[in-house]
């Protein structure tokens, strides 16, 4: 199978996984979940492409091209279900699909910053490690991101980050979300603190 990807390049696809993404507020926490579709009654709103070329140069969706695509996976999210179905049908029937014209959102640093509104704002793409990960042993392929709801955050209760060195802050961010070591290494102190605040829902 082949696709024309978001950058307009034609790439060989080894596998495509129909997935369903959901975001909700539960118990005061904003959560993002992404799971492979397991039966026909669930309509996919995301697709994960696994490529044969596992180390393309400059093909990432985020502003860190050298760190992107190292594991050969591309998540295309915020799709209307009919768009996801059409892409799957093209791959199955024609062996080729064009996803270059989906009207992608402006690139963001982390996947949680993309709008999720059933395709109204356009698709988004994310590439790198941790597209699917297990939150605890034996619970299946689930990627759950948890942050405090912004409405719940108190401006006066922001954490004092001066007690963290840059490397300690990078380590915390690595545990909080899907950053690569290269991404974190390229961030300034101000960017590290802003990303920490974003993950904690402090703005």
Question: Can you walk me through this structure?
Answer:
The protein has 203 residues and is α+β, with helices and mostly antiparallel strands. It is 20% helix and 25% strand. It is built from four helices and eight strands. Strands 1, 2, 3, 4, 5, 6, 7 and 8 form an eight-stranded mixed sheet that branches. Strand 2 and strand 3 form a beta hairpin. The chain is globular, with a radius of gyration of 18 Å. About 19% of the residues have low confidence.
Outline, from the CA principal axes? globular
Count every helix, treating DSSP H or I runs of 4 or more residues as helices: 4
Query: How confident is the prediction overall: mean pLDDT?
Result: 75
Helix/sheet category: alpha+beta
Number of strands: 8
What topology does this entry show?
Elements: E1 2-4, E2 10-26, E3 29-36, E4 46-51, E5 73-77, H1 81-93, E6 96-98, E7 124-127, E8 145-148, H2 166-176, H3 181-185, H4 189-199
Parallel strand pairs: 1-6
Antiparallel strand pairs: 1-2, 2-3, 2-4, 3-8, 4-5, 5-7
Helix pairs in contact: 2-4
